[in-house]
Amino acid sequence: MNNRFVNPLPGVPDVESPFFDQLFAAKEASAEVLSIASQLRDNGYAIIDFPDAEFDARAERIKTKFSPTFDFDHWRVELWHKNDSLRVQDAWESDADVRAIATSPAVLKLLSDIYGRRAIPFQTLNFPVGTQQPIHNDSIHFSSVPERFMCGVWVALEDVDGTNGALEYYPGSHKFPTYANEHMGVCSATQYKPTGHYPQYLDLWRQLIAAAGIDAKTFHAKKGQALIWAANLLHGGSKQTDPTRTRWSQVTHYYFENCVYYTPVFSDPAFGRTYYRQIKDALTGFIQPNVYSGVEVDHAVIERSMPNAFERYVKPAPPADFDPAGYLRLNPDVSAAGVDPAEHYLEFGRNEGRRWS
């Protein structure tokens, strides 16, 4: 008699499957893998020591190479106050150490074992200071079909404490449903700015946390410690209270094989608009195909669905009798700001009921 377990839900990550116990028993997962998977299942994150004997040397080379590219004085004088950060995106394409961290064989194997599909590193972000990001999840930016086949790995390139921008996250928030534009009552295709509704998501996530009564956790990492988080985990970067310090870190975002990759915040599926991602596998350097239930999505389908650089989004025009000079005269705050009157009216004025004549 064959007792081998056959997964009835292959479109759900193993780590979030209702058949978690059977799946990990069938693959004879090691105690370490099972422990990390259990933490991800229960809390939405797991903390590990980054598995690379050369990590310290890599971290120092990354800091030395990229430090001159940042204007730290400008950040401390202006951007820090605005909760902005500094970053280099996709340095894996030009830097061997960034790529080595992103494509760590041990990390790729661990993630593949946990999710049940091959892990694909597709984006890196290197930060010299704290991100100071508001609480958010990655699902609205990096989603997949089937959903939740995405995760992130953040690793400290130096010690992090309460003054140089520790990570902040909400355990268990990954179990919330994945909410998208249709749940928010938003059709991004009809907006002047396709991301103009993003503040609604920030407010939603705050309210979900309050309703669930979840307390924030902070990660004061030692150099070489890493945090793996699930796509739907609510997380962010706490305020860096000491702007004289650095907080070097690297984030790698991972998708998984045999999925469709897209950005929900730009997408309206009911209108046939899906903002597909054409991701490049950092391990191979090749573009990863979008695959739906084992079938590659035809390029013509992607072309029809993509709002090419947002050109297909409806951009409203001001009223035919719109008087730019009159608008500035009647709205001295707009005039003082030195902005284009028509642009201001379309983005703000029409919703605020401002007059133009």
What does this structure look like?
With 357 residues, the protein is of the alpha+beta class. The protein folds into 2 domains: 14-310, Jelly Rolls (Sandwich); 316-357, no CATH class. The protein is built from 12 helices and 13 strands. The strands form 4 sheets. The protein has a 6-stranded antiparallel β-sheet with strand order 1-8-5-10-3-2.
Poorly predicted regions are 309-314
CATH topology of the largest domain, by name, is: Jelly Rolls
Question: How many structural domains are formed by the residues?
Answer: 2
- Can you tell me the CATH class of the largest domain? Mainly Beta
The average pLDDT is 92
Q: Calculate Rg over CA atoms.
A: 23 Å
The count of β-strands is 13
Structural class from helices and strands? alpha+beta
Portion in helices: 25-40%
> What strand order characterises the main sheet?
1-8-5-10-3-2
Distance between the termini: 84 Å
User: How can the largest sheet be summarized?
Assistant: 6 strands, antiparallel
Q: What is the correct CATH architecture of the largest domain?
A: Sandwich
CATH H-tier superfamily of the largest domain: q2cbj1_9rhob like domain
Number of helices: 12
- What overall geometry do the principal axes of the alpha carbons give? globular
Strand content: 15-25%
User: What letter string, H or E per element, gives the SSE order?
Assistant: HHEHHEHHEEEEHHEEEEEEEHHHH
